[in-house]
Amino acid sequence: MGKRYDIVPEGGVTTPKGFTAGGLHCGLKKTDRHDLGAIVCEVPAAAAAVYTTNLFQAAPLQVTRESLAEEGALRAILVNSGNANACTGEQGDRDALAMRAQLAEAIGVPKHQVAVASTGVIGELLKMDRVSAGIERLPGRLKADADGSDDFCQAILTTDLVKKTACVRLAIDGQAVTIAGAAKGSGMIHPNMATMLGFVTTDAAIGAAELQSLLREVTNLTFNMITVDGDTSTNDMLVAMASGLAGNRELNRGHADWEAFAEGLRYVCQELAKAIARDGEGATKLIETTVEGAESDEAAQAIAKTIIGSSLVKSAAFGADANWGRIIAAVGRAGVPVNVNTVDVRLGDILVLEQSRPIPFDEEVALAYLKGDTVAINVNLHMGSGRSLAWGCDLTYDYVRINAAYRT
């Protein structure tokens, strides 16, 4: 069966019915780039979220958890960049609560219907006078068009070089349903739940519990399968909001169009995840790893993520070196069963290892392939039906340069 959705190239978080968004510069960043943004829904939206598993969790995560625990619905998400509000003690908690309360009052909704997210430097208190002045102006910057989506996307970036969006449209009960997303992330990326920050909007009718369950499943196949540098942030969060304004019957796992909706959500999240990997700090190329023939999908996931997380594999990709020994070493240390006599490895279409034995290949052809902006690594274990995809990026001199001076 072919894909059951249409890609909307110019779509963004404001494309689904009921959503506005915007962003502005309030002064948290040293440049004049936007650093405060919001997504607002005209009705209470069914909401779900997943969070970092890092034990040091930033204050905004606690506030968002509290908001969602009330009734599983949101009217708005408020986001700042330039400061993570993490490891900031009781004052950080008060600041996150104050941000929630001020936006709620400004748009006329209950406090518990506002989520808060932050990203940036850890361990510094927010300049709340600037944040507060920005929140006061924010409602006037909200738009239901592409400009509103773009302003929001710009407001959530830190070291990102590009904004990250995806959007699809599909039919559910004969009604047009749209799913869109925006994300930020470039460094400190090795999620164990989601990405640095991700936001999904949809006009589908779906309950909060069903949305939460599906979001976790999709996250495990997308955002949890990327890595840039092996670090999991204090602020990772993915939030989804469903306005229910498309007019479809409420989705659940028994609905005839459930799989179509799940497929659309997977596509949006996968495109955002790949964009984060491609935009890794200092990166010059995307590494896409496919592992098949494993004993289980879980085993394949472990191996795929070990490969893309290997500094040696990442360095070889940067140097366009067809060093398959680094790949096989990663396969062998992933902590899952492997038949060491039956492994095939391909770089793109170039077979370099068959049944765990080296295959002569043209080094010049391999060099030309590896100099491209995407490197595909395919590993077949020939042990079972388990399969997984994972995405990462090369490790470059610029990664060290960027992170050696992140605070300055």
UniProtKB/TrEMBL annotation:
Substrate binds at residues 158, 184, 195, 281, 403, 408. It is an enzyme of class 2 (transferase). One of its GO terms (molecular function) is L-glutamate N-acetyltransferase activity, acting on acetyl-L-ornithine as donor. Pathway: Amino-acid biosynthesis; L-arginine biosynthesis; N(2)-acetyl-L-ornithine from L-glutamate: step 1/4; Amino-acid biosynthesis; L-arginine biosynthesis; L-ornithine and N-acetyl-L-glutamate from L-glutamate and N(2)-acetyl-L-ornithine (cyclic): step 1/1. The active site is at residue 195. The record marks 119-120 as: Involved in the stabilization of negative charge on the oxyanion by the formation of the oxyanion hole. Its main location: cytoplasm. It catalyses: N(2)-acetyl-L-ornithine + L-glutamate = N-acetyl-L-glutamate + L-ornithine; L-glutamate + acetyl-CoA = N-acetyl-L-glutamate + CoA + H(+). InterPro entries: Arg_biosynth_ArgJ, ArgJ-like_dom_sf, ArgJ_beta_C. Keywords: Acyltransferase, Amino-acid biosynthesis, Arginine biosynthesis, Autocatalytic cleavage, Cytoplasm, Multifunctional enzyme, Transferase. It is found in: Cytoplasm. The record marks 194-195 as: Cleavage. Its EC number is 2.3.1.35, 2.3.1.1. One of its GO terms (biological process) is ornithine biosynthetic process. One of its GO terms (cellular component) is cytoplasm. The keyword Ribosomal protein does not apply. It comes from the Bacteria. The keyword Cytoplasm applies. Belongs to the ArgJ family. Heterotetramer of two alpha and two beta chains. Catalyzes two activities which are involved in the cyclic version of arginine biosynthesis: the synthesis of N-acetylglutamate from glutamate and acetyl-CoA as the acetyl donor, and of ornithine by transacetylation between N(2)-acetylornithine and glutamate. This is Arginine biosynthesis bifunctional protein ArgJ.
